[in-house]
Structures are given as C-alpha cells and as structure tokens.
Amino acid sequence: MADISAELMERNHLTAEDISWLVPHQANKRIIDATAHRMGLSGEKVMINIQRYGNTTAGTIPLCLWDWEDKLKKGDNLVLAAFGGGFTWGATWVKWGY
User: Would you say the pTM of this structure is higher than 0.90?
Assistant: First the structure.
C-alpha cells in the first residue's frame, strides 16, 4: 500500500501538500502509519476508524468515507489505497466532488 501510493503521487506529480486525505484500507495501524510516512503525510491527513470497527475487509474505504464525510470539502484530493488477499493492491487519486 505504501509503495503504490507513493508511486501514484510520483506519476501524477503530487506532493504531500497536494493531498488532502489518505483513505487507507483499515487492516492495521502499523500499515496505515507506514503508508502515510512513505507519502510524507502527517497523521492529521489520514482517515482512521480501525479502532472503532476493526478490519471490515472490502468495506473499509467506503466506511471511512462515511465516518469522515463531514471533514471533506469540494475539491479535496483523496488517495484511496487498499490491499487484499492474493497479493493484490492498488491506489487511486480522487477529487472530492461535493
């Protein structure tokens, strides 16, 4: 998750200052912290709710967006990053639309 998120930023010429929020898969806090660190993001830019729900597998990113929706502003740059079974991973850059 950390490598692909950093690669996404590099390919799109984004810096940590350009990113409003990291919305990571909520597998464990160590992985979330490592991803934010690799991206150069402070903890204030990371959506975390693992302490509330644990690892909700495929629902982690949508659930995080739901929990943090009141913090989002139109035009915010979000990086959604996840990994799953079978050594699958990915990240995408999304501009919040409302």
Answer: yes
